[in-house]
């Protein structure tokens, strides 16, 4: 059964932009090359980043720093983590999202060039993201940032890594986050596999499919068995305890493969006493916000930016 008739018509151009090619070890290099060129037509971002190189767990780590007002102090800030299923994408090529947020909110945004799987499986990407968060907090005075108003944000795999970084920061004594903003986050390594907890017949047909999800999680997992205390850092849905996490915004699509795991994570956060704002956009497939002039993308941007402004006191 096709779910094409359920897709909001304004999002149909996305099916040409992101056709949902199945991932394999053989075609990954070609998909990565295509991914790096995908957003070139957008031109230059609203704010040009300064590339800062910091010591990382695996060597030098690049942070793309978007500062709309250099020299100002006491500002809120966001740590941004890009998407790409754990296996593609880069902070270098995906500049328009964090640049747009920095310009719209007039706060600095730092985007992490984390290592990708399968070359660098768990916990390498998570450790890079945590290193970026620690750098932002430890250098807050120099960067003009208020440490009490640092949030973390990410889309898809970046949303999953943001959730994992928040868990790691909580478990390891900081840095303390003011909020986390998760856009259709990739949280549950079981989704789309034989161990999947969900049997939703209308999710995951387009852009990011069950096959792609199995490949992305397998690449990240490597030889890690998610049975020790780090299992929630690997796959946040596996975390036994979600208490003590920061206020959480979650935006997802009604046709997105991650819909059910996102709803379940929101429910568990609420049960753990965490403030949650949850949005599910009707007729929305994965990466729907890429069609910027669609009414769904406009609603999404309004909801997300207002939540960031409210929770980070912008």
Structure report:
- With 314 residues, the chain is of the alpha/beta class.
- It has a single domain (23-311), classed as Rossmann fold, CATH 3.40.50.1820.
- Helices cover 33% and strands 17% of the residues.
- Strand 7, helix 9 (259-271) and strand 8 (276-281) form a beta-alpha-beta unit.
- The protein is globular.
- The protein starts with 13 loop residues before the first helix and ends with a helix.
Text of the CATH class:
Alpha Beta
Q: What is the strand tally?
A: 8
Strand content: 15-25%
CATH architecture: 3-Layer(aba) Sandwich
Largest sheet: 8 strands, mixed
Question: Structural class of the secondary structure composition?
Answer: alpha/beta
Number of helices: 10
Spatial strand arrangement across the major sheet: 1-2-4-3-5-6-7-8
The CATH superfamily turns out to be: Alpha/Beta hydrolase fold, catalytic domain
What is the radius of gyration computed over CA atoms, rounded to a whole number of angstroms?
18 Å
Could you state the order of secondary-structure elements as H and E? HHEEEHEHHEHEHHEHEH
Average pLDDT, all residues: 96
**Which fold name is given in CATH as the topology?**
Rossmann fold
State the helicity in percent bands. 25-40%
Number of domains: 1
- Dominant shape: globular
Distance between the termini: 46 Å
Which regions have little confidence, pLDDT < 50, spanning 5+ residues? none
